[in-house]
Design goal:
The complex is a heterodimer of chains A (140) and B (613). With 140 residues, chain A is of the alpha/beta class. Chain A has seven helices and seven strands. Helix content of chain A is 39%, strand content 26%. In chain A, the strands form two sheets. Chain A has a five-stranded mixed β-sheet with strand order 4-3-2-5-6. Chain A has a two-stranded parallel ribbon with strand order 1-7. Chain B has 613 residues and is of the alpha+beta class. Classes of the chains: A alpha/beta (140), B alpha+beta (613). Bound molecules: iron/sulfur cluster. Iron/sulfur cluster binds next to α21 of chain B. The site of iron/sulfur cluster has 14 residues of chain B, from α21.
Chain lengths: 140, 613
């Protein structure tokens, strides 16, 4: 059954995918830099009235916590990556590499760039996990 | 047209006579400046068939119209001539502050003809130009000669120095020229050409300014572009981690060559050698070229241990590969030491490091032995042997004398099938981006007019998705290991990169801007309206056709537009390799070349280059 992106059900599936990924377990094994929040900016035309963050409590190769949060809370994460719905859709579909997306300004990053660069493989693996979730996009 | 000083200094080193020449307005419009105009001067005024190390081969140092303005990334200048390494058109751009100072002294460039009998150096203080005895400087390394000359001519504003080291004096064929210790015209052996002229250094101080044509628009544009560059993520990555910021991502995308291009991914190497590690362990300051908000230059120090260094210029990404991944060395301190030795000697760290990795493989395969290496053991992972080889190359001692000829010649001299280990095109060792991960880069290596090159075009940025330039007609989202649609992408990236180099804008800065921004920079600086995006692309086409015509006269044929066998061999059973035949076929059609690789008559006519027919 496909899960609407983003939704409580979708993020639960996403957490499962992360925590069963052997690749992420390895590439994120030394990650102690804190949570990452992926913010989907408001887009009423697809039913997203306000900016919404997907908070990933990542620690040493495990996603310990996942939740949907409003923007104010999202911005408290040490790493915040923001983009509009179409960009995140491309990322989830594996059509846009998130690091390339950040380089091109299609996704905006707040946080320590050297850390992101050092964990570029882990970020790739997190995207792989997202693409494994059976996803229903809100504009389809 | 503004943006130019309308004066090129012509120095005859055989009799110390000097003359002043101008660039034709038509050539400014057609070829912009920098290496574009230098190539035209080379073709028009010199015997291009002369041996590269003979007095008849000129050394041309050129600025572009953007050099010395205060727009971002306008520090660049270029050293050109026939390459001692490749025997074809050679050019090497450099950042730093020399080009801007030369412009402020009132010069668009300098042409050195003939050769001096004794070591000398050129002193320029605005319009006063003198050749001085450089006998006491001969034998000094680049750091020493820079310090001596700055101290010797220290009255007033600090001098800017562009000098060769021992490698240039000894005509090591991949010797470069260093500006103020930290910036290098490294590629194609322009340092050897300078050494062959017994010219040790050029020293310049200028008191003028570089006035743009449209001052109000210029000021507005400058503010906008500085903000835009500063804000861009590639610029932030470069500022925080230098060019080595690309190592970790590159390892993931199969961009990083390992073990002389024969080994697949190794994340242990990239995490030890990449930008974050360089920053955390060795960075003391960041440094910038003239007028650049990016500040990608590193200042580093190895505080203790066997590779201890003073605080000084740090390695670029390319150097972290050639003295790191290419020889499987994961000690970044050793790379920093190697970088310092190369900087002092004036050795291109790409060709020099590639020559050393090539020697390691020859040693591993038994085609050379300890007898050939003066007892040195060349073992993968060992940086100490590489450090000794740098010295041997610099002084042309033992096997160093063979490697100093470049890998193509070294393979001929070693024989025994060592050409299988070569990764060069037209004699220029390939830079550290693996075309098996990025096929468009492979086409760039095959057809670039100076041999395997990643800087004559914008492919690195475009193919890897860091920049898009939709206003040039480029499509987006290219897949790295695919050859389809790459010829068209590459052609546009070449037509954008050529003007960038000729205008003397830093490619990294263009990587943070749009093509429209670049055209605006030229418009407000020169006041010339034809430098819109389409006009720029046309200039890029002309610049490429001009250099290709020179190379055709020098004997380059279609078979020289090629990739080495190693690059055409996948790294693993699941890996792939560029379809170079497909890309070449498409590129030749798009560029309008005949079956020999020469521009067709109608191509030249349509490009406004009848004079090249
Ligand atoms: S980006 Fe780096 S190389 Fe280019 S001009 Fe700026 S400091 Fe120099």
């Amino acid at each position: 059954m496909p899960y609407k992106f983003p939704s409580e059900d979708w993020i639960k599936e996403y957490q499962k995918a992360i925590n069963t990924s052997e690749d992420y377990k390895q590439s994120g094994a030394t990650w102690t830099a804190g949570s990452v929040c992926l913010v989907v900016t408001a887009n009423p035309s697809v039913g997203i009235e306000k900016d919404v963050g997907i908070w990933l409590g990542l620690h040493k190769g495990v996603c310990e916590e996942i939740k949907l949060v409003p923007l104010e809370e999202a911005q408290k994460a040490p790493f915040v990556i923001m983009g509009d719905y179409s960009r995140w859709k491309q990322v989830v579909l594996g059509e846009l590499d998130p690091v390339q997306g950040m380089m091109q300004g299609k996704l905006k990053l707040k946080g320590d760039l050297p850390t992101i660069v050092r964990y570029v493989r882990a970020s790739q693996d997190l995207v792989q996990c997202a693409s494994k979730v059976d996803t229903q996009f809100m504009d389809e | 047209m503004e943006g130019y000083k309308n004066k090129i200094l012509e120095v005859d080193l055989s009799n110390f006579k000097m003359d002043v020449i101008d660039i034709l307005d038509e050539d400014k419009k057609r070829f912009i400046g920098g290496s574009g105009v230098a190539a035209k001067l080379f073709l028009d005024r010199f015997n291009i068939s002369a041996d590269p190390l003979s007095p008849d081969n000129p050394l041309i140092v050129m600025n572009g119209p953007l050099t010395g303005t205060t727009l971002p990334g306008t520090s660049r200048f270029v050293a050109c001539g026939k390459s001692p390494l490749t025997g074809i058109w050679g050019e090497s751009a450099c950042g730093g502050n020399f080009g801007a100072e030369l412009k402020m002294a009132g010069w668009d460039g300098i042409i050195f003809k003939s050769a001096s009998e004794k070591p000398c150096y050129l002193l320029i203080e605005d319009s006063r130009c003198k050749l001085l005895d450089g006998s006491d400087l001969w034998g000094k390394d680049i750091y020493q000669v820079t310090d001596i000359l700055k101290a010797r001519h220290k009255d007033g504003k600090q001098m800017k120095v562009f000098a060769i080291g021992r490698a240039g004096e000894n005509r090591v064929r991949f010797a470069g020229i260093g500006n103020d210790k930290a910036h290098f015209a490294g590629r194609t052996g322009m340092g050897a050409l300078m050494g062959s002229k017994k010219l040790k250094a050029i020293v310049v101080r200028g008191s003028g300014v570089c006035e743009p044509a449209m001052i109000d628009e210029y000021n507005t544009l400058r503010r906008t572009l500085i903000a835009k560059v500063s804000d861009s993520v590639p610029a932030q990555a470069l500022r925080q981690m230098g060019t080595d910021s690309g190592m970790d991502l590159g390892m993931m995308t199969n961009d990083v060559p390992i073990k002389n291009w024969a080994y697949p991914q190794d994340f242990d190497l990239s995490s030890n050698l990449g930008g974050p590690t360089l920053t955390e362990k060795y960075l003391t300051k960041v440094h910038s070229c003239y007028a650049c908000p990016v500040a990608c230059k590193r200042v580093v120090r190895v505080a203790d241990g066997p590779y201890r260094t003073e605080e000084g210029p740090g390695p670029e990404y390319e150097t972290c590969c050639t003295f790191g991944t290419m020889i499987m060395n994961k000690d970044l301190a050793g790379v920093i030491k190697a970088n310092e030795l190369c900087n002092r000697a004036g050795i291109d760290t790409i060709s020099g490091g590639a020559a050393i990795a090539f020697a390691y493989e020859c040693y591993e395969k038994g085609t050379i032995t300890k007898q050939d290496t003066d007892g040195l053991e060349l073992r993968w992972g060992d940086i100490d042997a590489a450090l000794k080889l740098i010295e041997m190359i610099t002084e042309r001692k033992g096997i160093g004398a063979i490697l100093a000829e470049g890998t193509r010649e070294a393979a001929k001299l070693f024989g025994k099938g060592t050409d299988e280990f070569l990764v060069e095109v037209k004699g220029l060792e390939a830079p550290m981006h693996d075309p098996r991960g990025w096929h468009g880069m492979g086409l760039g290596y095959a057809v670039s007019t100076r041999g395997a090159c990643h800087l004559q075009h914008m492919t690195l940025y475009i193919e890897q998705g860091m920049s898009a330039y939709p206003e040039t007609g480029l499509k987006a989202n290219f897949k790295g290991p695919k050859s389809e649609e790459k010829a068209e992408m590459y052609l546009i990236s070449e037509d954008l990169g050529g003007p960038c180099n000729s205008a003397c804008l830093c490619l990294f800065v263009l990587g943070c801007l749009s093509a429209t921004d670049f055209s605006e920079m030229l418009r407000v600086t020169t006041g010339h309206k034809d430098f819109d995006v389409q006009g720029l692309l046309k200039s890029g086409q002309r610049i490429n056709l001009l250099k290709r015509t020179i190379n055709s006269i020098l004997g380059m044929k279609r078979e020289d537009d090629r990739l080495p066998k190693r690059i055409l061999t996948p790294l693993s059973p699941k890996g792939n390799a560029p379809d170079i035949d497909l890309m070449l076929k498409e590129y030749y059609a798009l560029r309008g070349l005949d079956e020999t690789g020469r521009p067709k008559r109608e191509t030249l006519e349509a490009a406004g280059l009848k004079d090249l027919i």
